[in-house]
Amino acid sequence: MNINFSGKSVLVAGGTGGLGAAVSLAFLEEGARVTVTYRKEEEYAALKDAAATRAAALEGSPVDVTDERATAELVTGIVARHGRLDALVNAVGSYVGGVTLWELETKVFDAMLSLNLRSGYALARAVLPAMLKQGHGSIVNVAAKAAFDHGAGAAAYAASKAAAVAMMDSLAADVKGTGVRVNSILPSIIDTAVNRKAMPNADFTAWPKPQEIAQVILFLCSDHAAVVHGAAVPVYGNS
Predict the structure, then answer these.
(1) Where does the pLDDT of residue 1 fall: very low under 50, low under 70, confident under 90, or very high at 90 and above?
(2) Which of 38, 44, 121, 157 is flagged as catalytic?
(3) Is 157 a catalytic residue?
(4) 199 in a domain, yes or no?
(5) What percent of the chain has pLDDT over 90?
(6) Most distant CA pair in the chain, distance
(7) 72: Cβ–Cβ under 8 A, 6 or more apart, which residues?
(8) CATH code: domain of residue 65
(9) pTM (2 d.p.)
(10) What domain range is 215 assigned to?
(11) Three-state SS for 146?
(12) Backbone φ/ψ region at 99: left (φ over 0), alpha (ψ -120 to 50), beta
């Protein structure tokens, strides 16, 4: 299957993280112009190095995508520079677990809602005017297996990811027939350096690789997935 994004403009929020970097590089490899948001300058520098000869097609902005105004300004700038925005991938998120609900700090609960839910809300609101105007576009929001598999010690994380899936599902119904498609993906534990460090005794071979998940996201953003809308796609690997 030939997936080609030449001439297309893509926004990858959280595009320098463990999964986000793989997604950004995959889009660059297929010819897209990619804008990423990031929090750490060193991660953006590393992504540019990894992009090598395609680094000229990469832009970065240290925008807090839970800030609606800043996110709207970011998207306005992308559309002004490139004349279009074909895809949004929201790879912003965080995990806190291992504590019961009654022992959970409220500030941690609020942080989970902000990073895992509000980010998708602010980003979708920012990109939809442009996508609806051009009559096409794809939004892929990275949720988690925990949206449906509600384990002990992960109440805030599971609640935020479940809400994110529900929000995207409802948004998909809102934009039905407009040419804009909205989907979620549901990774299990992703094989990243951070997760390996956190769980050194785990079986890493069972975890899906960022590059493998990136290929699923590319498919969902491509014309080959024209009939996929309002889905929550599991990417569990062998875990």
Answers:
(1) low
(2) 157
(3) yes
(4) yes
(5) 80
(6) 51
(7) 125, 126
(8) 3.40.50.720
(9) 0.94
(10) 9-235
(11) helix
(12) beta
